[in-house]
Amino acid sequence: MGIKLTDSDTIPIMLESGFKPLESYPGANTPWKCLHIECGQIVYPRFSNVKNGKGCKICSGNQKFTEEKVKEIFPFAMDKMVLKYRFS
Ligand SMILES: [Zn+2]
What we know:
By secondary structure, the chain is mainly α. The chain is built from 5 helices and 3 strands. The chain has a domain at about 5-60. It has helices at about 5-15, 45-50, 55-60, 65-75, 75-85, and strands at about 20, 35, 40-45. The termini are far apart. Zinc ion (ZN) binds near residues 38 and 58.
């Protein structure tokens, strides 16, 4: 325990998760300036979170409005759309 990780230990894990680190590894629980390749935003994930499979906050924020969520919020709109599709 207490093994200190370095850039070469941590950067490949970040890249695998889709984050491109923009500065040296700051520590597992320190926000780390990275480019999230998928959305092109600068984000500050913690290495410990990324390692545990947590993604980009900006992307996960957007993902709250999935089709499931829209159905939940606008059930009537979805019904109308379904009906229109069915009877047109
Ligand atoms: Zn993102």
